[in-house]
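Form 7-S
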Amino acid sequence: MYEQLELDRFWAGRLAVSREGTRWPHILQTLVCYRLIDPGSEWRLHRLWFEQSAMAGLLGADYAPAEKNALYCCLDKLLAHKAALFTHLRSAGKSCSQPALKCCCTI
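Output:
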């Protein structure tokens, strides 16, 4: 769903890897998948969900995408792009042929 909504393309220019090596796109993908699959708190994602999921394998990453402070920092970084994200999702919903995605994008 993440790729079908072209969220990877949307965030590519807005959420790059930091100079320190923080892979913000991986953290964001982890947060999105967590919200869609098994919603809960960031603390639960950090303490329990990430270890029990296949996210590390799918991302080719270690435990870094589930580091507690990184989760909250990533959410903070997203706020500046909220309006652009909603515009993108509306556009993606209009051009979407799959009912599940169309429903998801009618904001």
